[in-house]
Amino acid sequence: MSEHFPKSHRILRRAEFRQVYQQGRRFQAKFFTAFVIDNQGNQTRLGITTTRKMGNAVRRNRARRLLREVFRKNKQLAADGIDIVLNARDSISEAAYTDVESDFISFLKKAGKRSEVHSDISDSDL
């Protein structure tokens, strides 16, 4: 499987971020807050936000690079056809890659279980 991170795997437009925030499910993790929503495509896409509250540009850029790399290496674990927006937390600044990666994987497991629960409910209602 390719480990590239092309533009087709990124959420780039403000309107797309807003849609994920407003309509998506929210998950808390140690190093980030995640918002997840189903999209109409078959690509899993990622958007990352960092605030100035985190610190200077060096800290914010490191957080974005770390989250992008964790996603790139583990995107095969995510369900197809979802948009994920990650809001980095301050604690990610001093975190090791392995800690962030394990946090991301446990988030994906939680998000997968949540979506399966929703699909079971809708199937039983039919």
Question: TL;DR of this structure?
Answer:
The protein has 126 residues and is an alpha+beta fold.
What would you note in describing this structure?
This protein has 126 residues and is an alpha+beta fold. Strands 1-2-4-3 form a four-stranded mixed sheet, with helices on both faces. It contains three helices and four strands. Residues 115-126 have low confidence and may be disordered. The chain is globular and about 35 Å long. The protein is 45% helix and 18% strand. Helix 2 packs across helix 3.
SSE topology:
Elements: H1 14-23, E1 25-28, E2 32-38, E3 45-49, H2 57-74, E4 82-88, H3 97-125
Parallel strand pairs: 3-4
Antiparallel strand pairs: 1-2, 2-4
Helix pairs in contact: 2-3
